[in-house]
Structures are given as C-alpha cells and as structure tokens.
Amino acid sequence: MYPEYPYYGQKKETKTVPIAFPPQHQNRMPGFEYEMNPRPISENPNYKSGNRLKDKVAIITGGDSGIGRAVAYSFVKEGAKVVIVYLNEHRDAMETANRIKELGGECLLIAADLTEENNSILVAKQTMQRFGKIDILINNHAVQYVQKSILDITKEQLEHTFKTNIFSFFYLIKAVLPYLKEGSSIINTASITAYSGFKELLDYSSTKGAIISFTRSLSLSLVNKRIRVNAVAPGSFWTPLIPASFSEKKVMTFGTDSPYKRAGQPFELAPAYVYLASDDSGFTTGEVIHVNGGQMVTT
Length: 299
Hints:
This protein is of the alpha/beta class. The protein is 35% helix and 13% strand. It has one domain (18-33, 53-291): 3-Layer(aba) Sandwich (Rossmann fold), CATH 3.40.50.720. The termini are far apart.
C-alpha cells in the first residue's frame, strides 16, 4: 500500500512548500521505523518491473527499514530473493518480511551484529544454505551520533562508528566473495557527507569518505573477475537514523535546506540500487550515484 502522506508534494501557488516533520526523537540507535511519524514511504505505487533481477539472490544489510527496506521491495518486484540482515529491529524486520510475502517474494531474515567478523561468515553460510547462491551484496547499515565538537567524541564512539560503518563492510565482502561469480554486484551505501562534510557528524562523515575510497579500490581489485563494485551517496532521506540521532528541533527542519525543499523518501532512492544490481550497469564499476535532490557535490 502507498500510505497517505499529507506533507508530501504539497504546493502553494507556484512555490513548493518546504516539507517539515513533526518533532520527534528516539533514544536508541539505529532507530525504529514503526515509531516514526509520518512513516517513510518505501514503495512507489507506479513502479513497473522489468524482471531485471529475476532469480537473483541479494543480501541487503539494514534491510529491515529505511533505504534497505525500499531496496528490498524493489528487488523483490524485479524478481530477486532477498536476505535481510539487521541488528535488533525485530518488529520492523517482520513487517518488511510480511510485505515481501504479500508481493510474492522470498525473504530470509538474519539478526546479526556485523561488527563481529564471525557473524558475516554466518550470514554467507545461511544464505547459501537457504538459496544456494549469492549474486548481489548491498552494504547499507550504519550508525551516526551527533556531537558538537571532536572533543565530545569518545574512543568508544569512534571505534563503534568505524566498526559498524566500514569495518563490517570489509568483513561481509570477505565472507561473501568466495561465492560471487562473474556478473555479481556489490553496492555500498555512502553519503553526501563524504563530499560536503557535516560538522556535527565527524566520525560518520569520515566513514562515508572511507566507503568511497574502498568502493573505488575494490572495484579495481575485482574487475578482472567481472564483479562490479559501486556506491550510492544519498542526500537527506527520511529514515530511522534521523529521529534516532537528531534532536526534535533538527528533525522539524530536516531536508528543507535542499533545492527540493524537502527530504527524500526511501522509494526515490531504490531505483539507483536496482540499476547497479542489474545487467543494465554491466559496464559500470567504481562509480558513485548521487541521489540528493539537487544538492551540489564535488566528486
């Protein structure tokens, strides 16, 4: 279903009204989608499938909600079977799995802390046991913590952010790579902050910059195997990370400083992943797709 969303696309005369969210904050990371108001929009009601991922098997981390959920729905509509890896957001994960079932798709849920390398090995093994192959890996999970100064970033926070946002990407790719074949695709979720920076997200922005370099270097490493490695760099998108990390005041204006005067919705990002996962992008590797509502970045 396409949920009612009174804030979306409203216009007054000829000018687009900045879209504002109600004040809200969740005191936990990475956040829960079922508590958000309004809920993110994960599906495009006018989406047309081309069966571009027919019979493919995709692992999607952070697939329980936000961007990962939207990608999972689009992949299933394109014919893929999906493995959704998530931390502890069980209610969101079950909601996603139920919707995938309604869409006629197949889904395997795996709750795992990917900062532990052994868990990536388990994810790869469980995927092979269930589906017998792996064609696509989407590294999409992340955490972010707002701090006013570098002096406020503790050793524990710094290590946790890097372990979650970049170390785990290494771990999962290492675990999955032996099962990938020619034509397989790895897609990493980066961020506009890797290019524009963000003064209150120093460690998060640093990991996103690392993801860009990692993507480009790994693409060179795997090009002879014809395994493609690309990234997507979202701008401001309405996902559980936002109320989980920003204050109520910041949430109320989130995304309104973009040229579109609003935050993006997850379904608007999913087609970039479909493109990079499909044969349509067979000659594309080491690239970053920017989906950010017109925010200018220097690449």
